[in-house]
User: Fold these one by one.
Assistant:
Number 1:
Amino acid sequence: MRPQPHPSGPGQESVWAYPRPPRLEPTPRLIEIRFNGLLLAQTQRAYRVLETSHPPVYYLPPSDVQMAYLRPAGRTTFCEWKGQGHYFHVQVGDRCAENAAWHYPHPTPPFAPIAGYLAFYPRPMDSCTVDGEPVQPQPGGFYGGWITADIVGPFKGEPGTAAW
């Protein structure tokens, strides 16, 4: 059963207006990720994936990520839209965030522009920001969406959303 979308105000997007299958779009917004005192990533060349009921997931070019702090995790998952995802641990100094980032080395044709681009779960990072605004992680432990003030739900991952 589809939930009732929250009302959106000026300049806000409802995740219920996002398409299924998801859409990929470039974004010039400033994306920054910090972990254990390090600016791990900074870009204005990200893509975002927009999917019904999910806040956007941002994919960053590897050239704008300090890749020396990522280690292959050996974990893979499969997305019906993007293909097989491969995970990374983020290790900075004495802190490690396991399976905190992922990418699609060989995504399906509609998502070819993000081949090798990296997405990060915001919860294990010290901060993830969009144009300087701290993001809230998508509810639950599986999805990697980034919630900002301009995105309204309800969001997949909240209690009772398993059947959406």
Number 2:
Amino acid sequence: MNYIQEDFLNLSDSAMLKELGISVVSYKHIDSTNLATRRLAAQGCATPLLIVADSQSEGRGRMGRSFYSPNATGLYMTLLLDVTDDAPPSIVKITSAAAVAVSSAIEHVTDVDCRIKWVNDLYLNGKKISGILAEAFFENDRKYVCVGVGVNICTEDFPEELKGIAGAIGADVSLRGKLAPEICREMLDIYMKIKNGNLAYMDEYRRRSLVLGRKVRFFENGKSFEGVAVSVDDDGGLCVLLDNNQRVILRSGEISLRLK
């Protein structure tokens, strides 16, 4: 299927993206920016590459979920990196790095201080405003990592199942033109530090955590467990002290906060 390309954010003129050596592909409407990276990688595209869309019909989230992506109310983007010659970190690490990059970029551009709900969601005033989906794949003997980001800028009319759960930054949608390059800058900066063994970004992840010190629930092998989230290790794993005083480290899945 062909999608109409249009530089609706004028990102091809972004001085920051040019300085970072990032090419840009923009779509008015697409199925998913993450899916687009796979198609473009198959065509031998240059990297790093930023894909943005004004709307998505199949915006993707973790665990097979979708990300609501209506027209002209949010930032929907994917940063594609060729990591063939690297020893790339785990997807949990990449996701943790992206959470720090996106939250830092939002704060830098808007002064909004959002919080990270392990492992890949950003919250503001108790509502989810952003989701992240990092994926790794091979194409033409090359290894890629793509980091998909959805940020609700001014989205208001959510589907019934998201009302009371999803929120938005509450800024003008024109913010996207500044936010996308800033996210890329933050992400590439952190990625280079990870390659050099610098995991200082995890201190920022912990500082921005919404869950540390709070009661959480998670499911494992069909069973429900509750405990207190006590720490996040440098690999992005969440340590939970269960009610029976057993400690477990979560490397995947998701948690729900247990609020009194």
Number 3:
Amino acid sequence: MNRFLKPLPWVSAALLTVSGSAAIVIDPLSWGLPVGATFRLVVLTTGTTAATSSSIGTYDTFVNTQGLSGITYNGSSLTWQALGQTAGSDPTTDATRFSSQANSVATYNLNGAQVSNTSSNPFWVTGGFSSHLAPIDWTINGSGNLEQVSGSTRVWTGFDFRGDAVTASNYDDDGNQIGTVTATLGSSATYQDYDFDSFTPIPNQTLYPYYGRAGASANGWAAIGEDSPLSTQYRMYAISGPITVTAVPEVEVVFAAAALALGGFTYRLRRSRADRVA
């Protein structure tokens, strides 16, 4: 490349990438988002973790070791949190969580596929069934590149599509319900079930947190089962802080301006030499 035609330092990184750079640069303008729109990104981790911690901060630390700092917009890295439910943090009501505001703006995959909107297909629903517009199945692989994972990939969540933790009824020996137990990330529960066909109690049952399936766009994205021990290694979802779409100069215009500036510099240099010779 001509050394005079280097990208200008003020050209937005949303449009230009540097050869050899591991950064994944997002361009929401090419996705059809207008200038001034606010959105969030959702991503699947490439690595796996157990669900043994009851601290949501542990999962935040985990997702931020998954190469997410390599995702940039306008030259800046984004802020990420895990999507998960612990005993002390509800993803839909905890004001410190990005997930609690997920219904207020649209969410997108890293490839630009829209996952949810603010009306007909919100991120969380309070009744019925959730239907995301696309599965959350894009990740950053070990080489730092975008990759779509298998639809059967399991993901620790700790919540269902409404953001609720899994519960089970606890019965006494006579089949009377004596309460419920709950399981979230970092906590399982032992309870007694009851077989009402044989009138037999079923003691020492274990309830584990929910896990989802990355390839599901309906309620299964959040919960397809609750039968995996906490030590099981699954991936997790992560959600970004809010991102506002900004206007950026067109690449062609920038390079045209650079070429004109270079031409003017060459002309002035030649004129100066001609004047000295004269």
